[in-house]
Amino acid sequence: MQNQKIAEGDYILLYLSQRKTYLVKVEAGKSFHTHKGFIKFDNLIGKDYGSGVVSSLGFEFVVLKPLLRDYVMKSVRKTQITYPKDIALIVMFSGIGPGNRVVEAGTGTGALTTALAHYVKPNGKVYSYEFREEFQKVAEKNLTRAGLLDFVELKVKDVTAGIDETDVDAVVLDLATPWLVIPHAYTALKPCGTLISFSPTIDQIVKTVEALNESGFVDVETVECLMRGMQVERGKTRPQTLMTAHTGYVTFARKAAKTTA
To answer: What is this structure's pTM?
Structure first.
């Protein structure tokens, strides 16, 4: 059961408004400063999550326990991240769950890695490939902050040169040339294992789907997920002016046994 009281060392989400939230670590003797005043962490330790706290300038914040989406959206970034709307599709269509072994490439700064690690715990593993070591170091920090590093093996390697693991449940690709990895993914996957590829452009998905069809995958499908928020107020409810529209295309496929004559 999760701790319902705020403790030193916890990461908390300080909520001021829907547009102003802060993911911070509780450290005794220190304060968190915002444009709405500062908050002393000593005044939070021992309180229940969901409690209100007033800043030095009189503004009230609510202390929330961070959700997975908070760790994803507030990742320290050196690259673009995968958004929750796409992560949800990836997890649901791939069937990734507790105990699964998953190969991911590339790691980037670890937003998608964080989500995958959350879903394979407590006895699964994510093997995450990234050839840029500086990105792996940022990903390690993000995974540590989310408490999920133990479920990930970070690998500094070009996945287009091959995948070390075999008999894995899923391969998740988020890189510029996923079609180059398809033959390696086929070898690494267990029978009926799933492959998921996230790409921002149509040219990429055409090459990827062609490679999937040529390599023995079936049930190949590509989708795009658009998410539009609503401005809700009695008598004025309407779609928000801005929306999270195109982020990328998600291609799914399953490994089938190759037939022989």
So the answer is: 0.92
